[in-house]
Design goal:
mainly alpha, rod-shaped, LysC-like
Length: 65
């Protein structure tokens, strides 16, 4: 008797280019007005969310392996 002669070749997942970019640097709060603080906070949260999404994507890629 012979077994199946085909072997399964595992392929590496394709990594999207945006995941190969480093997380954006947080900026420093400059100025002391409420407007300055609000703009800084919005920018910082957006950069943090972008980085968190990249980390989550890497976790999903690792789970798929």
């Amino acid at each position: 008797m012979t077994a199946c002669c085909r072997s399964t070749v595992l392929s590496k997942p394709v990594i999207p280019a945006n995941l190969l970019e480093p997380c954006p640097q947080f900026s420093y709060l400059e100025g002391g007005t409420g407007k300055d603080a609000l703009l800084w906070a919005v920018d910082t949260v957006a950069k943090g969310n972008e980085c968190a999404a990249k980390v989550d994507a890497w976790i999903e890629i690792e789970k798929a392996r």
